[in-house]
What does this fold into?
Amino acid sequence: MKPMTEQEIRSAFVNCSKGEAKRLHVPRDLVERPWDDLDFLGWRDPQAPDRAYLAAEFDGRTVAVVLRSSGAASWQARRSICSLCVTTHTGGVSLLVAPRAGKAGQQGNSVGAYMCADLACSLYVRGKREVGTRLHESLTVEEKIRRTVVNLTAFVSKVTA
Ligand SMILES: [Zn+2]
It folds into this structure.
């Protein structure tokens, strides 16, 4: 993906207030991120472990989404599968919940999905970050990347719908 700037990310949030988008945690090391190997940028707030964020380009437009871990219980010890990249982890998958954009979100509607807790799906799919066990799949890396992007697009379109 194309590298993003802090300003670009902050102005792309679809499911929080403008004030929150200004204040929330954006990584300081954006220039050092492995953009060539990312399908989306995902990060957590080191000061607030229940907060997570992701940003990606959809149809030529940058969209960023605020996510929350739904409680400590979501850090499960059992094996779980990320719904975006379909990587199996033991204890490394979080149920992340995004308030829906606009009126729906104000009324408390949200969309949840199990995701890699560190939001590094792009790196797992490419084998750039290792997990203990990997389900054997007869898919090429390209196919896995495509599947991740399809899953991510479906999730984000539920948030913005
Ligand atoms: Zn994942």
